[in-house]
TrEMBL record:
Domain of life: Eukaryota
GO terms, molecular function: hydrolase activity
Pfam family, one: Abhydrolase_3
Source species: Trepomonas sp. PC1
PANTHER family the record matches: AB HYDROLASE SUPERFAMILY PROTEIN C4A8.06C, ALPHA_BETA HYDROLASE FOLD-3 DOMAIN-CONTAINING PROTEIN-RELATED
Protein name: Alpha/beta hydrolase fold-containing protein
Record keywords: Hydrolase
Length: 376
């Protein structure tokens, strides 16, 4: 797409000559210039100065804009700032950050695109598994079944308790199934405007339902889903019900009170939840879910404050640039005595495993999940 934008203006010069083509050409120049500025975010400060010089040249000599943009692309590849991160992920995370800083976009507005996110799309590539819909009292779960097995992964999707089960987590369910060979049940639990403990009740009911048919169950939870997985574990511990065999938590949201230092330290660099660097830190800028009610330090809302006894092994993955980094570190301190594992991925953003599963880092994370489950 980038190279195409660079070439199209030249192609238009040869094939189109009317007034509209000139306007289109000008628009393409602007797009290319903006793409170039965006690319500058990938490189270090000395190269940005060179970018500015080239951009000034392009403004004086518009016909050379395609050449300038190709130079931008070359420099971004050669001199980009974080070479320890794959190019695919680097572009992806900066694209996300760029979008999140647009005036019309916020985390809240993204959560509100429920209809689009929840549109069902059948599995591709001639999938050999069956998908069943299981209804519960106030929720439903989508169950991927390929063969008779005694093992199940109960996936608790994220979404800040604001958006329900969506297509992204359907793809993750397929990925979990392919990596483990287990059946996968993805729970579409109640979210805001429903209040606590609606989601916890849904998760407990679903877990007890699947316990009747499966000997071994593993929880997989991302973000708010990680919060719910830990809260459910605490509830099972309280009710003296058998815990799952293990948990896999990706960027778990364990502290709704947001007392970790990373909420402040990472606020300007977090690619998904970051704010403008000119804004002064204010706790009001931190996302609050409409699901939460009462004391935010309630362990069933903020598992960080829970007491863990005879818990199951837990794999925790988190990005090094996340506001929620301390949420993972603090909960790991309580869980490490149960053969748990914490992996901090440098430079990674929130839920990168789901957003970019086929990047180098995404593949590494999912392979780690596969290895963790294989040795249980």
């Amino acid at each position: 797409l980038y190279i195409g934008l660079c070439l199209v203006p030249w192609i238009n010069l040869f094939f189109i000559t009317n007034t509209y083509s000139i306007k289109l050409l000008y628009m393409l120049y602007i797009i290319c210039g903006n793409m170039a500025l965006f690319t500058a975010h990938l490189v270090s400060i000395p190269q940005v100065k060179i970018y500015n010089i080239l951009l000034q040249f392009a403004n004086l000599k518009p016909k050379y804009t395609p050449i300038v943009n190709l130079l931008f692309l070359f420099m971004a590849l050669k001199y980009r700032r974080d070479k320890h991160i794959s190019l695919k992920l680097d572009i992806e995370r900066n694209t996300i950050k760029f979008m999140m800083h647009l005036p019309c976009i916020s985390v809240t507005t993204l959560f509100k695109v429920r209809i689009f996110l929840n549109q069902y799309q059948p599995p591709k590539y001639n999938a050999k598994f069956e998908v069943r819909i299981q209804k519960h009292s106030h929720s439903t779960s989508e169950l991927i079944i390929q063969k008779k097995t005694n093992c199940l992964v109960l996936q608790l999707p994220g979404g800040g308790y604001e958006v329900g089960f969506c297509q992204m987590y359907r793809k993750s369910a397929e990925l979990i199934h392919n990596k483990t060979g287990f059946n996968v049940a993805s729970l579409d639990y109640r979210v805001s405007p429903n209040k606590y403990p609606a989601a916890l009740e849904d998760a407990l009911e679903a877990y007890q339902f699947y316990q009747k048919n499966y000997d071994e169950i593993i929880f997989s939870g991302t973000s708010a889903g990680g919060n719910l997985a830990l809260a459910l574990g605490l509830k099972l511990q309280e009710l003296q019900i058998k815990l799952p065999k293990a948990m896999v938590l990706m960027s778990p949201w364990t502290d709704m009170a947001a007392e970790g230092s990373s909420y402040k330290e990472k606020m300007y660099i977090d690619h998904l939840f970051s704010v403008d660097k000119n804004l002064k830190f204010d706790r009001k800028l931190i996302f609050k879910s409409g699901y939460a009610s009462g004391d935010l330090k309630n362990p069933f809302l903020s598992p960080k404050y829970g007491q863990y006894d005879n818990f199951c092994p837990v794999l925790i993955q988190v990005g090094g640039d996340e506001c929620l980094l301390d949420d993972s570190i603090s909960i790991f301190d309580k869980l490490k005595k149960f053969n748990s594992k914490l992996h901090i991925y440098p430079g990674m953003f929130h839920s990168f495993q789901h957003i970019a599963p086929y990047s180098k880092e995404g593949k590494q994370a999912w392979n780690e999940v596969q290895e963790f489950i294989a040795v249980l």
